[in-house]
């Protein structure tokens, strides 16, 4: 029943329905749940067991990452000049050498990077399972870091010999995919409020699984009451593949197979046209916007402004570290703003809207209505940002400054009321051990070439 009071913040950004920003703000939480939000004066009468001074800081809800491939954290800086399909073909053989230890090390590395930059909830999309790798390896790794985890059981079933993109050695039998998906949902998925782990169903992409698997995955997810995730309309090649192979655009393909609705979110959607944006808005189908990855692979600029205006549920995603090659969500929000302005003018996108998408928008898109805002009764996931950091000092508008001149990392991060980052370092795991494990795996992966 310990009551923790975070007080004297320059600004508390609540992301409640009125999007209140409270100058001189404070947040109190107990048993993983927010108990009170207000000015420091309003909360001064609370008898707190632990008082955290947030002077000079902005306090926000923890950031939400809606698309990632954490295993890729060990393959940054490869195929640096390739577009999506060529990039994948270069990386598949390296990923085929991963062991469970490598996936564990890569997941810890990626989640540590996210936690240290203020992320309290991250999804993951693991779609290849060589050498005994299981989704369990990533879930165990996440437990060690302490942030909420939303792994999705990905899959690839159409290899090169059947006209797909991945090598045959990396694809799985579809019956085995569905059986293992049921196993991990039954073992790990927690549908309750405050859940630390939820599991989604996520065939990799229309160009690496069959029409039947897409359809069966949707049926399975609805039977289990879990969410669906995949890649869609990432670049022009992706759309061309859909037109040639399926005779329709990606949006129509998704709709025909049951891949629209509030329980579905797609990564990228760079190439959605106006009718597809309308389809997503009407059906409440979500989009994980990954601007840095889209830039790195030359995929284009997603119609974020149009999707936001139409009411498409939106989240920000860093995407895998092989195509970003960084995992810093505030930088991602910044990139989102800048790209929309590059094509739409200075008024095209507001930094506060980007911060909303990176917090509450992402949480709601993932069905986590218990997270994403600082309000009494919501889970105690909050990030404390020291605006005296070299990269942020001098920001007059502290909230816009958080997006436009973000600190390198978060000062403190609480998830379910528990400290994950304090004074800029991990609490529940040792940074040095994470790096050492990643280095060991990296050396082995290079040796095998
Ligand atoms: Zn991806």
From TrEMBL:
CDD domains: ATZ_TRZ_like. The keyword Zinc does not apply. PANTHER family: AMIDOHYDROLASE-RELATED DOMAIN-CONTAINING PROTEIN, AMINOHYDROLASE SSNA-RELATED. NCBIfam families: PRK08203.1. Belongs to the metallo-dependent hydrolases superfamily. ATZ/TRZ family. Its EC number is 3.5.4.32. InterPro entries: Amidohydro-rel, Metal-dep_hydrolase_composite, Metal_Hydrolase, MTA/SAH_deaminase. It holds the Pfam family Amidohydro_1. Keywords: Hydrolase. This is 8-oxoguanine deaminase. GO terms for molecular function: 8-oxoguanine deaminase activity. Residues 58-399 form the Amidohydrolase-related domain. It is an enzyme of class 3 (hydrolase).
